[in-house]
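Hey, resending since the last one bounced:
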Amino acid sequence: MPYFSIIIPVYNRPDEVDELLESLSKQPFLDFEVLLIEDGSSIKCDLVAQKYSHLLNIRYFFKENSGRSETRNYGMEKAEGEYFVFFDSDCVIPPFYFEKIKKNLTDNYTDSYGGPDKADKSFSDLQKAISFSMTSFLTTGGIRGSKGAKMEKFVPRTFNMGFSKEVYKTVGGFKDMFGEDIDLSLRIRNNGYTCQLISDAFVYHKRRVDLRSFYRQVHVFGMARISLYLLHPTSMKLVHTLPALFTIVSLLMIILSFFNVWFLLPLAIYFTLIFITSFFQYKKLSIALISIITTAIQLYGYGWGFIKSFIKKVIFGNTQSVKDELNKYYNKK
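The structure tokens again:
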């Protein structure tokens, strides 16, 4: 039996899957199986799976569309490994990823882990700018990686996450909700299992999105935080409210600027810092300029989703079916 079971939910993404499987085929450590779960796609990746069948221990499954949570749960039911690993289909895995994970589990075993995401040098300017906004210490994206461990207890995300089969048997799978990976991570911790950040086990997260779909994505993240708060009240930290506070304060600054333009100075300073930091990271003017836009989208999109969901669910107690909300979101994708 393989030690690791890699579970990948897929929906109409054969090109992404091709790159992901290619990167997995180049791992020196190959004690893993790959479970590719097609979630009712109209554009299948069965031929892509077949392409790598001689290089990888890969199993392909097709099921009716039910969303990513149930698809991952389906994969865990089929998995044969002792440790389950999750990637998004738009990830590329660097060489030696599994060597690093296995060494960490051997030297300092943990029941669950997560790792950060980065942008590869081959990514487009937009992809690099989005990665900057989602990982920079100047945005709340910083809580997703090594810096985030200092801001709150580290919570793995499913673009780069793993846990033992024992954890799954005890805690159960992913719920059909916004923020399903954070919910599961919290349940893992609440059941007394260990969790750690393995900071050198990163993935390249490609995020093939345009600005509009990026806004929708972070908007859902903001809504998810309220759903998580209702399920896990103690999980809400000050850092999670910062985009909402930033959105409100920015609106006040814009209103006050009609009386005195100097009220916009703090915003100008902040986005100048974004520009400078992005430029020094990527050494490219176009990425630095786009980073201003993607950071604004990341903060205001998340912030508005948080505010809207807080008003709807906490103040007015409107508990619309999470399934309906998810379907509304997925139907826009």
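The chain has a mean pLDDT of 92.

Sorry for the duplicate.
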